[in-house]
Amino acid sequence: MNHPASHSQSFTVTTPLYYVNDVPHIGHAYTTMAADSIARWHRLNGRDVLLITGTDEHGQKIERTAIAAGVNPQVHCDRIVAKFDSLWSKLDIKYDRFIRTTAPAHRTIVNEFFQRVWDSGDIYKGTQQGWYCVACEEFKEERDLLADKHCPLHPSKQVEWRDESNYFFRLSKYQQQLEALYAERPDFILPNSRRNEVLKFVAQGLQDFSISRVNVDWGIPLPTDPDQTIYVWFDALLGYVTALLDPDAQVSLDNALHSRWPIDLHLIGKDILRFHAVYWPAMLMSAKLPLPERVFAHGYFTKDGKKISKSEGNAIDPIALVDCYGAEPLRYYFLKEIEFGQDGDFNETRFIEIVNADLANSLGNLVNRTLGMAKKYCQGYIPNCNATDIAADNPLKILGRDLGAQVDIAYNNLAFRDACEAILNLVRSSNKYIDDLAPWALFKQDKHLELAQVLYSVLESARLSAYLLSPIVPKISTDIYRQLGLNIDFDLICCNNSNDDNTASVENWKHHQQWGILQANSQLGEPQPIFTKLEVKTAPSS
Ligand code: ME8
User: Fold this and answer.
1) What is the pLDDT, as a whole number, of residue 4?
2) What is the DSSP letter of 501?
3) Has residue 394 got a pLDDT over 70?
4) Residue 73 vs residues 60, 79, 218, 236, 433: alpha-carbon distances, Å
5) How far apart are the C-alpha atoms of 352 and 47, rounded to whole Å?
6) pTM of the predicted structure, to 2 decimals
7) Least confident among 39-43, 154-158, 234-238, 312-316
8) 72 confidence band (pLDDT: 50, 70, 90)
9) Which residues line ligand 1 (CB under 6 A)?
10) Which of 165, 271, 327, 508 has the most beta carbons within 10 angstroms of its beta carbon?
11) What residues have CB less than 8 Å from 181, skipping those under 6 apart?
12) Closest residue CA from atom 19 of ligand 1
Protein backbone atom coordinates (compact mmCIF):
# COMPACT_ATOMS: atom_id res chain seq x y z
CA MET A 1 0.00 0.00 0.00
CA ASN A 2 1.34 3.40 -0.86
CA HIS A 3 -0.21 5.59 1.76
CA PRO A 4 -1.00 9.03 0.37
CA ALA A 5 -0.67 10.64 3.78
CA SER A 6 2.68 9.10 4.54
CA HIS A 7 4.51 11.96 2.86
CA SER A 8 2.28 14.79 3.89
CA GLN A 9 2.63 16.67 7.12
CA SER A 10 -0.52 15.64 8.94
CA PHE A 11 -2.02 12.30 9.75
CA THR A 12 -5.38 11.60 11.39
CA VAL A 13 -6.28 8.14 12.58
CA THR A 14 -9.34 6.87 14.42
CA THR A 15 -10.22 3.84 16.50
CA PRO A 16 -13.87 2.76 16.66
CA LEU A 17 -15.90 4.69 19.21
CA TYR A 18 -16.52 1.88 21.62
CA TYR A 19 -19.87 0.97 23.16
CA VAL A 20 -20.13 1.66 26.85
CA ASN A 21 -22.62 -1.07 27.66
CA ASP A 22 -19.81 -2.84 29.47
CA VAL A 23 -16.24 -2.40 30.70
CA PRO A 24 -13.49 -2.41 28.03
CA HIS A 25 -12.82 -5.67 26.22
CA ILE A 26 -9.38 -6.96 25.24
CA GLY A 27 -10.42 -6.41 21.60
CA HIS A 28 -10.87 -2.69 22.29
CA ALA A 29 -7.35 -2.63 23.69
CA TYR A 30 -6.03 -4.39 20.59
CA THR A 31 -7.31 -1.85 18.07
CA THR A 32 -6.28 1.05 20.27
CA MET A 33 -2.73 -0.26 20.80
CA ALA A 34 -2.37 -0.59 17.04
CA ALA A 35 -3.72 2.92 16.45
CA ASP A 36 -1.38 4.33 19.09
CA SER A 37 1.63 2.62 17.55
CA ILE A 38 0.89 3.88 14.07
CA ALA A 39 0.29 7.37 15.47
CA ARG A 40 3.63 7.23 17.27
CA TRP A 41 5.43 6.20 14.09
CA HIS A 42 4.00 9.16 12.20
CA ARG A 43 4.88 11.52 15.05
CA LEU A 44 8.46 10.23 15.04
CA ASN A 45 8.54 11.15 11.39
CA GLY A 46 7.66 14.71 12.25
CA ARG A 47 4.02 14.60 11.18
CA ASP A 48 1.29 16.48 12.93
CA VAL A 49 -0.78 13.57 14.17
CA LEU A 50 -4.27 13.40 15.60
CA LEU A 51 -5.25 10.11 17.21
CA ILE A 52 -8.98 9.98 17.83
CA THR A 53 -10.68 7.49 20.08
CA GLY A 54 -13.86 7.69 22.11
CA THR A 55 -17.13 6.14 23.09
CA ASP A 56 -20.46 5.44 21.47
CA GLU A 57 -22.98 6.12 24.20
CA HIS A 58 -26.47 6.24 22.73
CA GLY A 59 -28.94 3.54 21.70
CA GLN A 60 -31.02 0.76 23.03
CA LYS A 61 -28.14 -1.42 24.18
CA ILE A 62 -26.78 1.25 26.53
CA GLU A 63 -30.26 2.33 27.59
CA ARG A 64 -31.19 -1.22 28.62
CA THR A 65 -27.89 -1.79 30.44
CA ALA A 66 -28.41 1.36 32.47
CA ILE A 67 -32.00 0.45 33.28
CA ALA A 68 -30.90 -3.04 34.38
CA ALA A 69 -28.27 -1.45 36.63
CA GLY A 70 -30.88 0.95 37.99
CA VAL A 71 -28.97 4.09 37.04
CA ASN A 72 -29.51 7.01 34.75
CA PRO A 73 -27.89 6.27 31.36
CA GLN A 74 -25.59 9.27 31.58
CA VAL A 75 -24.34 8.18 35.00
CA HIS A 76 -23.76 4.71 33.62
CA CYS A 77 -21.84 6.10 30.61
CA ASP A 78 -19.68 8.30 32.83
CA ARG A 79 -18.69 5.31 34.94
CA ILE A 80 -17.69 3.18 31.99
CA VAL A 81 -15.87 6.01 30.24
CA ALA A 82 -13.66 6.34 33.32
CA LYS A 83 -12.68 2.67 32.89
CA PHE A 84 -11.72 3.23 29.25
CA ASP A 85 -9.69 6.25 30.15
CA SER A 86 -7.89 4.41 32.89
CA LEU A 87 -7.10 1.51 30.54
CA TRP A 88 -5.69 3.85 27.91
CA SER A 89 -3.47 5.45 30.47
CA LYS A 90 -2.23 2.06 31.73
CA LEU A 91 -1.51 0.96 28.17
CA ASP A 92 0.37 4.19 27.43
CA ILE A 93 -2.06 5.21 24.71
CA LYS A 94 -1.36 8.83 23.74
CA TYR A 95 -4.64 9.84 22.18
CA ASP A 96 -5.24 13.44 21.14
CA ARG A 97 -9.04 13.49 21.18
CA PHE A 98 -11.53 11.43 23.15
CA ILE A 99 -14.96 11.97 21.69
CA ARG A 100 -18.10 10.99 23.59
CA THR A 101 -21.25 10.89 21.52
CA THR A 102 -23.16 12.39 24.45
CA ALA A 103 -21.07 15.58 24.20
CA PRO A 104 -23.33 18.60 23.50
CA ALA A 105 -21.21 19.63 20.49
CA HIS A 106 -21.89 16.28 18.89
CA ARG A 107 -25.62 16.86 18.83
CA THR A 108 -25.08 20.07 16.84
CA ILE A 109 -22.86 18.27 14.33
CA VAL A 110 -25.37 15.43 13.92
CA ASN A 111 -28.22 17.87 13.37
CA GLU A 112 -26.30 19.84 10.76
CA PHE A 113 -25.24 16.70 8.96
CA PHE A 114 -28.78 15.32 9.04
CA GLN A 115 -29.98 18.54 7.44
CA ARG A 116 -27.51 18.17 4.57
CA VAL A 117 -28.65 14.62 3.89
CA TRP A 118 -32.27 15.76 4.17
CA ASP A 119 -31.59 18.56 1.68
CA SER A 120 -30.18 15.99 -0.73
CA GLY A 121 -33.59 14.31 -0.64
CA ASP A 122 -32.10 11.12 0.80
CA ILE A 123 -34.36 10.74 3.85
CA TYR A 124 -37.93 9.48 3.67
CA LYS A 125 -40.47 7.91 6.00
CA GLY A 126 -41.28 4.23 5.66
CA THR A 127 -42.05 1.06 7.55
CA GLN A 128 -39.32 -1.11 8.95
CA GLN A 129 -40.06 -4.74 9.58
CA GLY A 130 -37.41 -7.25 10.48
CA TRP A 131 -35.22 -8.96 13.03
CA TYR A 132 -33.12 -6.63 15.14
CA CYS A 133 -30.03 -7.55 17.16
CA VAL A 134 -29.72 -5.08 20.03
CA ALA A 135 -26.13 -6.17 20.74
CA CYS A 136 -25.12 -5.28 17.14
CA GLU A 137 -27.66 -2.43 16.99
CA GLU A 138 -28.47 -3.69 13.50
CA PHE A 139 -31.28 -5.35 11.54
CA LYS A 140 -30.38 -8.85 10.39
CA GLU A 141 -31.43 -10.84 7.36
CA GLU A 142 -33.43 -13.91 8.40
CA ARG A 143 -31.15 -16.13 6.29
CA ASP A 144 -28.10 -15.02 8.33
CA LEU A 145 -29.55 -16.01 11.72
CA LEU A 146 -28.58 -19.08 13.74
CA ALA A 147 -31.11 -21.59 15.04
CA ASP A 148 -33.83 -20.14 17.29
CA LYS A 149 -33.28 -16.66 15.85
CA HIS A 150 -29.92 -16.09 17.51
CA CYS A 151 -27.48 -13.55 16.13
CA PRO A 152 -24.37 -15.07 14.52
CA LEU A 153 -22.16 -12.43 16.15
CA HIS A 154 -23.84 -12.79 19.55
CA PRO A 155 -24.89 -16.44 19.70
CA SER A 156 -26.22 -16.08 23.24
CA LYS A 157 -28.62 -13.30 22.16
CA GLN A 158 -31.92 -13.68 20.34
CA VAL A 159 -32.91 -11.08 17.78
CA GLU A 160 -36.17 -9.17 18.30
CA TRP A 161 -38.98 -8.58 15.80
CA ARG A 162 -39.54 -4.94 14.88
CA ASP A 163 -42.39 -3.44 12.93
CA GLU A 164 -42.21 0.31 13.16
CA SER A 165 -42.49 3.50 11.26
CA ASN A 166 -38.99 4.90 10.71
CA TYR A 167 -37.09 7.37 8.60
CA PHE A 168 -34.90 5.76 5.96
CA PHE A 169 -31.67 6.71 4.27
CA ARG A 170 -31.57 6.10 0.49
CA LEU A 171 -28.52 3.85 0.49
CA SER A 172 -29.68 2.18 -2.73
CA LYS A 173 -29.20 5.45 -4.59
CA TYR A 174 -25.43 5.23 -3.95
CA GLN A 175 -24.89 1.71 -5.26
CA GLN A 176 -23.13 2.81 -8.45
CA GLN A 177 -21.12 5.57 -6.83
CA LEU A 178 -19.89 3.15 -4.18
CA GLU A 179 -18.93 0.58 -6.80
CA ALA A 180 -17.05 3.28 -8.70
CA LEU A 181 -15.28 4.29 -5.48
CA TYR A 182 -14.07 0.73 -4.78
CA ALA A 183 -12.91 0.37 -8.38
CA GLU A 184 -11.12 3.72 -8.54
CA ARG A 185 -9.52 3.46 -5.13
CA PRO A 186 -8.55 -0.19 -4.64
CA ASP A 187 -6.93 0.51 -1.30
CA PHE A 188 -9.88 2.39 0.16
CA ILE A 189 -10.68 -0.85 2.01
CA LEU A 190 -7.85 -2.98 3.33
CA PRO A 191 -6.80 -5.72 3.60
CA ASN A 192 -7.87 -7.15 0.27
CA SER A 193 -9.86 -10.00 1.77
CA ARG A 194 -12.13 -7.44 3.48
CA ARG A 195 -12.43 -5.44 0.31
CA ASN A 196 -13.65 -8.55 -1.45
CA GLU A 197 -16.24 -9.12 1.30
CA VAL A 198 -17.56 -5.62 0.75
CA LEU A 199 -17.63 -5.96 -3.03
CA LYS A 200 -19.64 -9.16 -2.67
CA PHE A 201 -22.06 -7.57 -0.25
CA VAL A 202 -22.62 -4.51 -2.43
CA ALA A 203 -23.00 -6.64 -5.55
CA GLN A 204 -26.07 -8.29 -3.95
CA GLY A 205 -27.80 -4.91 -4.19
CA LEU A 206 -27.99 -2.27 -1.49
CA GLN A 207 -31.16 -1.62 0.46
CA ASP A 208 -32.12 1.60 2.16
CA PHE A 209 -31.71 1.46 5.93
CA SER A 210 -33.63 3.10 8.72
CA ILE A 211 -31.84 5.90 10.54
CA SER A 212 -34.36 6.57 13.30
CA ARG A 213 -35.95 4.67 16.14
CA VAL A 214 -39.20 4.92 18.01
CA ASN A 215 -39.28 3.72 21.61
CA VAL A 216 -35.60 4.48 22.16
CA ASP A 217 -35.33 7.58 24.31
CA TRP A 218 -31.56 7.46 24.84
CA GLY A 219 -30.49 9.15 21.65
CA ILE A 220 -30.45 12.41 19.72
CA PRO A 221 -33.99 13.50 18.80
CA LEU A 222 -34.66 13.46 15.07
CA PRO A 223 -34.63 17.13 13.97
CA THR A 224 -37.68 16.61 11.74
CA ASP A 225 -39.69 14.42 14.14
CA PRO A 226 -38.90 14.65 17.85
CA ASP A 227 -40.94 11.50 18.57
CA GLN A 228 -38.07 9.53 17.15
CA THR A 229 -34.35 9.39 17.95
CA ILE A 230 -31.50 9.05 15.51
CA TYR A 231 -30.25 5.52 14.92
CA VAL A 232 -27.13 4.96 17.00
CA TRP A 233 -24.88 4.12 14.03
CA PHE A 234 -25.88 7.26 12.08
CA ASP A 235 -25.05 9.22 15.22
CA ALA A 236 -21.83 7.37 16.12
CA LEU A 237 -20.04 7.58 12.76
CA LEU A 238 -20.38 11.36 12.96
CA GLY A 239 -18.39 11.23 16.18
CA TYR A 240 -15.31 11.12 13.95
CA VAL A 241 -16.29 14.54 12.62
CA THR A 242 -17.15 16.06 15.99
CA ALA A 243 -13.77 14.91 17.30
CA LEU A 244 -12.05 17.18 14.78
CA LEU A 245 -13.48 20.34 16.35
CA ASP A 246 -10.79 22.31 18.09
CA PRO A 247 -11.71 22.67 21.76
CA ASP A 248 -12.20 26.43 21.54
CA ALA A 249 -13.81 26.53 18.09
CA GLN A 250 -17.41 27.52 17.60
CA VAL A 251 -19.42 24.35 17.08
CA SER A 252 -20.38 23.91 13.45
CA LEU A 253 -19.93 21.28 10.80
CA ASP A 254 -17.84 23.67 8.70
CA ASN A 255 -15.48 24.32 11.59
CA ALA A 256 -15.14 20.62 12.33
CA LEU A 257 -14.32 19.85 8.71
CA HIS A 258 -12.14 22.87 8.27
CA SER A 259 -8.59 21.59 8.62
CA ARG A 260 -8.31 17.85 9.06
CA TRP A 261 -11.07 16.34 7.02
CA PRO A 262 -10.90 13.82 5.42
CA ILE A 263 -9.56 11.34 7.95
CA ASP A 264 -6.51 9.40 6.75
CA LEU A 265 -7.26 6.10 8.39
CA HIS A 266 -10.24 4.49 10.11
CA LEU A 267 -8.88 1.52 12.04
CA ILE A 268 -11.62 -0.95 12.92
CA GLY A 269 -12.31 -4.65 13.52
CA LYS A 270 -13.90 -6.75 10.80
CA ASP A 271 -17.26 -6.80 12.65
CA ILE A 272 -18.03 -3.20 11.72
CA LEU A 273 -16.72 -3.16 8.19
CA ARG A 274 -20.04 -2.58 6.41
CA PHE A 275 -20.81 0.46 8.50
CA HIS A 276 -17.46 2.04 7.66
CA ALA A 277 -16.98 0.88 4.09
CA VAL A 278 -20.55 1.08 2.77
CA TYR A 279 -22.92 3.14 4.95
CA TRP A 280 -20.41 5.81 5.98
CA PRO A 281 -19.11 6.70 2.49
CA ALA A 282 -22.71 6.77 1.19
CA MET A 283 -23.74 9.14 4.01
CA LEU A 284 -20.78 11.38 3.17
CA MET A 285 -21.62 11.31 -0.54
CA SER A 286 -25.14 12.37 0.32
CA ALA A 287 -23.81 15.25 2.45
CA LYS A 288 -21.45 16.12 -0.44
CA LEU A 289 -18.32 15.68 1.64
CA PRO A 290 -14.97 14.14 0.73
CA LEU A 291 -14.44 10.53 1.77
CA PRO A 292 -11.85 9.16 4.19
CA GLU A 293 -8.62 7.92 2.66
CA ARG A 294 -8.75 4.42 4.01
CA VAL A 295 -10.61 1.89 6.13
CA PHE A 296 -8.50 -0.91 7.53
CA ALA A 297 -10.38 -3.76 9.21
CA HIS A 298 -8.23 -6.08 11.31
CA GLY A 299 -9.17 -9.60 12.34
CA TYR A 300 -10.71 -10.97 15.48
CA PHE A 301 -8.82 -12.93 18.02
CA THR A 302 -9.80 -15.83 20.15
CA LYS A 303 -8.52 -17.03 23.51
CA ASP A 304 -6.91 -20.45 23.45
CA GLY A 305 -8.66 -21.05 20.14
CA LYS A 306 -12.16 -20.15 21.43
CA LYS A 307 -14.34 -17.11 20.76
CA ILE A 308 -13.95 -14.67 23.64
CA SER A 309 -17.22 -14.13 25.43
CA LYS A 310 -18.52 -13.63 28.92
CA SER A 311 -20.99 -16.44 28.54
CA GLU A 312 -18.11 -18.82 27.65
CA GLY A 313 -16.41 -17.62 30.84
CA ASN A 314 -13.18 -16.88 28.96
CA ALA A 315 -13.34 -13.10 28.66
CA ILE A 316 -9.97 -11.47 29.21
CA ASP A 317 -10.05 -8.40 31.39
CA PRO A 318 -7.50 -6.05 29.79
CA ILE A 319 -7.14 -4.04 33.00
CA ALA A 320 -6.25 -7.16 34.99
CA LEU A 321 -3.89 -8.25 32.22
CA VAL A 322 -2.00 -4.98 32.14
CA ASP A 323 -1.86 -4.84 35.94
CA CYS A 324 -0.45 -8.34 35.94
CA TYR A 325 2.15 -8.06 33.17
CA GLY A 326 2.58 -4.39 32.31
CA ALA A 327 1.79 -2.54 29.09
CA GLU A 328 4.85 -3.09 26.95
CA PRO A 329 4.85 -6.91 26.85
CA LEU A 330 1.17 -6.79 25.84
CA ARG A 331 1.68 -4.16 23.18
CA TYR A 332 4.59 -6.16 21.80
CA TYR A 333 2.85 -9.52 21.86
CA PHE A 334 -0.37 -8.44 20.20
CA LEU A 335 1.34 -6.50 17.43
CA LYS A 336 4.16 -8.95 16.81
CA GLU A 337 2.29 -12.21 17.16
CA ILE A 338 -0.98 -11.58 15.33
CA GLU A 339 -0.63 -10.65 11.69
CA PHE A 340 -2.56 -7.42 11.51
CA GLY A 341 -5.62 -7.96 9.36
CA GLN A 342 -5.83 -11.70 10.09
CA ASP A 343 -7.58 -13.46 12.93
CA GLY A 344 -5.33 -14.47 15.81
CA ASP A 345 -5.26 -16.08 19.21
CA PHE A 346 -4.27 -15.09 22.72
CA ASN A 347 -2.59 -17.79 24.76
CA GLU A 348 -0.92 -16.80 27.98
CA THR A 349 1.89 -19.34 27.80
CA ARG A 350 2.76 -18.38 24.25
CA PHE A 351 2.59 -14.70 25.21
CA ILE A 352 5.17 -15.26 27.92
CA GLU A 353 7.39 -17.34 25.67
CA ILE A 354 7.39 -14.69 22.94
CA VAL A 355 8.11 -11.67 25.10
CA ASN A 356 10.77 -13.50 27.11
CA ALA A 357 12.48 -14.74 23.95
CA ASP A 358 12.38 -11.43 22.07
CA LEU A 359 12.51 -8.71 24.71
CA ALA A 360 14.62 -10.43 27.39
CA ASN A 361 16.78 -13.04 25.64
CA SER A 362 17.38 -11.25 22.36
CA LEU A 363 17.05 -7.48 22.85
CA GLY A 364 17.73 -7.29 26.59
CA ASN A 365 20.72 -9.55 26.33
CA LEU A 366 22.17 -7.59 23.43
CA VAL A 367 21.96 -4.29 25.27
CA ASN A 368 23.26 -5.70 28.49
CA ARG A 369 26.27 -7.55 27.19
CA THR A 370 27.21 -4.75 24.79
CA LEU A 371 27.11 -2.07 27.45
CA GLY A 372 28.93 -4.37 29.85
CA MET A 373 31.75 -4.76 27.34
CA ALA A 374 31.84 -1.04 26.57
CA LYS A 375 32.21 -0.40 30.27
CA LYS A 376 34.97 -2.94 30.63
CA TYR A 377 36.96 -2.27 27.47
CA CYS A 378 36.16 1.40 26.76
CA GLN A 379 35.62 2.81 30.29
CA GLY A 380 31.90 3.32 29.63
CA TYR A 381 32.31 5.36 26.43
CA ILE A 382 31.33 4.78 22.85
CA PRO A 383 34.53 3.54 21.22
CA ASN A 384 36.66 5.97 19.29
CA CYS A 385 35.14 5.26 15.92
CA ASN A 386 32.30 6.39 13.67
CA ALA A 387 30.06 4.70 11.15
CA THR A 388 32.34 5.76 8.31
CA ASP A 389 35.18 3.77 9.90
CA ILE A 390 33.14 0.57 9.67
CA ALA A 391 33.81 -1.47 6.54
CA ALA A 392 31.03 -1.52 3.95
CA ASP A 393 30.79 -5.31 4.18
CA ASN A 394 30.19 -5.33 7.95
CA PRO A 395 27.05 -7.51 8.23
CA LEU A 396 25.38 -5.21 10.78
CA LYS A 397 26.09 -2.12 8.71
CA ILE A 398 24.57 -3.87 5.69
CA LEU A 399 21.43 -4.87 7.63
CA GLY A 400 21.18 -1.49 9.34
CA ARG A 401 21.53 0.49 6.11
CA ASP A 402 18.15 -0.58 4.74
CA LEU A 403 16.31 -1.31 7.95
CA GLY A 404 14.83 2.17 8.52
CA ALA A 405 13.25 2.25 5.06
CA GLN A 406 12.03 -1.33 5.39
CA VAL A 407 10.42 -0.67 8.76
CA ASP A 408 8.91 2.58 7.48
CA ILE A 409 7.14 0.64 4.73
CA ALA A 410 5.99 -1.96 7.23
CA TYR A 411 4.51 0.62 9.62
CA ASN A 412 2.82 2.49 6.77
CA ASN A 413 1.26 -0.81 5.70
CA LEU A 414 0.22 -1.54 9.30
CA ALA A 415 2.39 -4.64 9.03
CA PHE A 416 3.51 -4.49 12.65
CA ARG A 417 4.63 -8.08 12.58
CA ASP A 418 6.94 -7.47 9.61
CA ALA A 419 8.37 -4.42 11.37
CA CYS A 420 9.11 -6.44 14.52
CA GLU A 421 10.58 -9.35 12.55
CA ALA A 422 12.91 -7.09 10.58
CA ILE A 423 14.12 -5.36 13.75
CA LEU A 424 14.54 -8.65 15.58
CA ASN A 425 16.62 -9.89 12.70
CA LEU A 426 19.12 -7.11 13.34
CA VAL A 427 19.05 -7.85 17.09
CA ARG A 428 19.69 -11.56 16.59
CA SER A 429 22.37 -10.90 14.00
CA SER A 430 24.05 -8.55 16.46
CA ASN A 431 24.12 -11.21 19.14
CA LYS A 432 25.57 -13.67 16.67
CA TYR A 433 28.12 -11.10 15.53
CA ILE A 434 29.35 -10.73 19.10
CA ASP A 435 29.63 -14.51 19.47
CA ASP A 436 31.51 -14.80 16.17
CA LEU A 437 33.85 -11.86 16.66
CA ALA A 438 34.45 -12.46 20.39
CA PRO A 439 35.38 -8.95 21.56
CA TRP A 440 36.90 -10.41 24.76
CA ALA A 441 39.46 -12.26 22.62
CA LEU A 442 40.19 -9.12 20.56
CA PHE A 443 40.84 -7.30 23.82
CA LYS A 444 43.26 -9.97 25.03
CA GLN A 445 45.05 -9.85 21.68
CA ASP A 446 45.35 -6.05 21.92
CA LYS A 447 43.40 -5.63 18.69
CA HIS A 448 41.98 -2.32 19.83
CA LEU A 449 40.94 -1.00 16.46
CA GLU A 450 38.94 -4.12 15.63
CA LEU A 451 37.49 -4.21 19.11
CA ALA A 452 36.31 -0.61 18.78
CA GLN A 453 34.66 -1.34 15.46
CA VAL A 454 32.89 -4.43 16.71
CA LEU A 455 31.58 -2.65 19.77
CA TYR A 456 30.50 0.39 17.81
CA SER A 457 28.60 -1.83 15.34
CA VAL A 458 26.65 -3.62 18.03
CA LEU A 459 25.96 -0.53 20.13
CA GLU A 460 24.66 1.24 17.05
CA SER A 461 22.53 -1.75 16.07
CA ALA A 462 21.02 -1.83 19.55
CA ARG A 463 20.24 1.87 19.22
CA LEU A 464 18.62 1.56 15.83
CA SER A 465 16.54 -1.38 17.03
CA ALA A 466 15.34 0.58 20.04
CA TYR A 467 14.41 3.55 17.89
CA LEU A 468 12.46 1.49 15.38
CA LEU A 469 10.64 -0.44 18.11
CA SER A 470 9.70 2.70 20.02
CA PRO A 471 6.15 3.01 18.60
CA ILE A 472 5.40 -0.38 20.14
CA VAL A 473 7.52 -0.40 23.32
CA PRO A 474 8.27 3.27 24.03
CA LYS A 475 9.47 2.80 27.62
CA ILE A 476 11.90 0.03 26.79
CA SER A 477 13.23 2.11 23.90
CA THR A 478 13.65 5.16 26.12
CA ASP A 479 15.50 3.01 28.63
CA ILE A 480 17.87 1.67 25.98
CA TYR A 481 18.49 5.17 24.70
CA ARG A 482 19.27 6.39 28.19
CA GLN A 483 21.75 3.57 28.70
CA LEU A 484 23.36 4.52 25.41
CA GLY A 485 23.77 8.05 26.74
CA LEU A 486 21.01 9.53 24.57
CA ASN A 487 18.49 11.58 26.45
CA ILE A 488 15.33 11.10 24.43
CA ASP A 489 12.00 10.19 25.97
CA PHE A 490 9.89 8.54 23.29
CA ASP A 491 6.75 9.23 25.27
CA LEU A 492 7.44 12.95 25.19
CA ILE A 493 8.15 12.94 21.47
CA CYS A 494 4.73 11.41 21.13
CA CYS A 495 2.84 14.09 23.02
CA ASN A 496 1.83 16.69 20.47
CA ASN A 497 0.96 19.09 23.25
CA SER A 498 4.15 18.85 25.21
CA ASN A 499 6.31 21.96 25.40
CA ASP A 500 9.39 19.93 26.03
CA ASP A 501 12.42 20.63 23.79
CA ASN A 502 12.20 16.99 22.92
CA THR A 503 9.04 17.69 20.97
CA ALA A 504 10.05 21.04 19.58
CA SER A 505 12.79 19.42 17.55
CA VAL A 506 10.84 16.31 16.69
CA GLU A 507 11.76 16.64 13.02
CA ASN A 508 15.34 16.02 14.03
CA TRP A 509 14.67 12.49 15.12
CA LYS A 510 14.06 11.24 11.62
CA HIS A 511 17.76 10.79 10.94
CA HIS A 512 17.79 8.32 13.86
CA GLN A 513 16.23 5.90 11.38
CA GLN A 514 19.66 5.56 9.79
CA TRP A 515 22.44 3.28 10.96
CA GLY A 516 25.46 5.21 12.26
CA ILE A 517 24.18 7.92 14.58
CA LEU A 518 26.16 7.21 17.73
CA GLN A 519 29.00 9.65 18.27
CA ALA A 520 32.53 8.42 18.95
CA ASN A 521 33.75 8.90 22.53
CA SER A 522 30.45 9.98 24.01
CA GLN A 523 29.61 8.72 27.45
CA LEU A 524 27.29 5.77 27.96
CA GLY A 525 24.82 5.37 30.80
CA GLU A 526 24.82 2.66 33.46
CA PRO A 527 23.91 -0.80 32.12
CA GLN A 528 20.69 -2.07 33.68
CA PRO A 529 18.36 -4.89 32.68
CA ILE A 530 15.78 -3.46 30.27
CA PHE A 531 13.25 -6.24 30.63
CA THR A 532 12.71 -8.68 33.46
CA LYS A 533 11.49 -12.06 32.31
CA LEU A 534 7.82 -12.76 32.91
CA GLU A 535 6.36 -15.78 34.62
CA VAL A 536 2.87 -17.16 34.07
CA LYS A 537 0.61 -15.58 36.67
CA THR A 538 -2.76 -16.11 34.97
CA ALA A 539 -4.45 -12.76 34.89
CA PRO A 540 -7.97 -12.94 36.27
CA SER A 541 -10.78 -13.20 33.69
CA SER A 542 -13.50 -10.57 33.67
O1 ME8 B 1 -18.92 -1.68 17.32
N2 ME8 B 1 -10.87 -9.18 18.46
O3 ME8 B 1 -18.30 -0.79 19.35
P4 ME8 B 1 -17.74 -2.07 20.11
C5 ME8 B 1 -10.40 -8.04 17.93
N6 ME8 B 1 -19.76 1.32 18.91
N7 ME8 B 1 -11.00 -6.83 18.07
C8 ME8 B 1 -12.12 -6.77 18.78
C9 ME8 B 1 -12.67 -7.92 19.39
C10 ME8 B 1 -11.99 -9.18 19.21
N11 ME8 B 1 -12.40 -10.33 19.74
N12 ME8 B 1 -13.79 -7.54 20.04
C13 ME8 B 1 -13.93 -6.20 19.85
C14 ME8 B 1 -18.89 -0.76 18.13
N15 ME8 B 1 -12.93 -5.72 19.09
C16 ME8 B 1 -19.43 0.60 17.75
C17 ME8 B 1 -18.42 1.32 16.90
S18 ME8 B 1 -17.63 3.45 15.48
C19 ME8 B 1 -18.30 4.86 14.94
C20 ME8 B 1 -18.88 2.66 16.40
C21 ME8 B 1 -12.71 -4.31 18.71
O22 ME8 B 1 -17.55 -1.65 21.52
C23 ME8 B 1 -12.70 -4.10 17.20
O24 ME8 B 1 -12.04 -2.90 16.93
O25 ME8 B 1 -18.58 -3.26 19.84
C26 ME8 B 1 -14.16 -3.92 16.91
O27 ME8 B 1 -14.41 -3.33 15.65
C28 ME8 B 1 -14.57 -3.03 18.06
O29 ME8 B 1 -13.81 -3.54 19.17
C30 ME8 B 1 -16.06 -3.06 18.34
O31 ME8 B 1 -16.30 -2.27 19.48
Assistant:
1) 38
2) H
3) yes
4) 10, 10, 8, 16, 61
5) 34
6) 0.94
7) 312-316
8) very high
9) 16-19, 25, 27-28, 30-31, 56, 236-237, 239, 268-269, 271-272, 300-301, 308
10) 327
11) 188, 281, 291
12) 237
From 22, 268, 272, give the residue whose CB has the most ligand 1 atoms within 8 Å, as the site to mutate.
272
Q: Give the model's pLDDT for residue 145.
A: 93
Q: Quick one: which atom of ligand 1 is closest to the CA of 236?
A: 19
Q: Give nearest CA residue, ligand 1 atom 2.
A: 300
> Ligand 1 centroid vs 221 CA: distance in angstroms?
25
CA angle 103-109-113, nearest 5°? Answer: 145
> What pLDDT score does 536 carry?
79
Mean pLDDT lowest for which of 24-28, 301-305, 329-333, 430-434? 301-305
As a whole number of angstroms, the distance between CA 148 and CA 363 comes to: 53
How far, in Å, from the CA of 260 to the mean position of ligand 1?
Answer: 24
CA-nearest residue for atom 3, ligand 1, is 18
pLDDT band for position 5 (50/70/90)?
very low
**pLDDT tens track for 173-189:** 999 999 999 999 999 99
Q: Tell me the CA–centroid distance for residue 25 and ligand 1, in Å.
A: 9
For residue 315, name the pLDDT band (cuts at 50, 70, 90). Answer: confident
Residue 471: strand, helix, or coil = coil
- Residues that are catalytic: 25, 28, 133, 136, 151, 154, 307, 310
| Alpha helices for 204-299 (secondary structure H) | 232-237, 239-242, 253-257, 273-274, 280-286
Most informative mutation of 17, 25, 53, 339 for ligand 1 (most atoms within 8 A of CB): 25
Q: Which amino acid is at 457?
A: S
Ligand 1, from 28, 235, 301, 346: best to mutate by most atoms within 8 Å of Cβ?
28
| pLDDT at residue 149, as a whole number | 92
Q: Which domains does the chain have, with CATH numbers?
A: 7-298 (3.40.50.620), 348-513 (1.10.730.10)
**497-533: pLDDT as tens digits:** 444 444 444 555 778 999 999 999 999 998 899 999 9
State in Å: Cα 18 to ligand 1 middle: 6
Decide: helix, strand or coil at residue 537.
coil
Is residue 170 exposed (0-12), middle (13-18) or buried (19+ Cβ within 10 Å)? middle
Q: Whose CA is nearest to atom 26 of ligand 1?
A: 269
